[in-house]
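dude i think i finally got it to work??
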Amino acid sequence: MSPEKSDMVLKAIEKASERRYLPIIGPQRGKILAEIVRKLKPKRVLEVGSLVGYSTILMAKELEGDAEIVSIEIDEDEAKSAKQNIRAAGVKPEVQILVGDASELIPKIDGEFDLVFLDEDKHEYFHHLQLVEGKLHKGSTVIADNAGISAYSMRNYLNYVRKSGKYESRYVPAGEDGLEISTKL
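look at this
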């Protein structure tokens, strides 16, 4: 994969996001996500909320060809756009886009995940974490986007990762928003 190719696709998505609001992670929080992925080098990633593939590409840029990203998108048109963008970016890891409701799809996915990225309906974060929790191992990291501006909508999730004793969790601010980064104990 050429970094220029993937960077061009990311820039095009950012421009499209300015014209027609797309709730992508964007460059500011995206940089933090990419740094975490670069540091952890997960072999298997679950993303809930592909949208047009922006964060998928950001993560994939940091991974080798032996890694796998499973991404779930409920909207068929967005999933189609994500597949096209990911293909155009020419990323190394295998990327699988599953179309449908994450509540139905997560239980059907076999195997463990080293990293989970939640960027979907904020009210669903806690429920989807509960569904994927059995597929996490000690050291698995869960990253939840919009933990600043949407903290109230995701309060059940935030209370759980911060107070259950199952995670070491911290909020990382980025501009007016931020990410909640939780490592399974």
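The chain is about 40% helix and 25% strand.
im so relieved honestly
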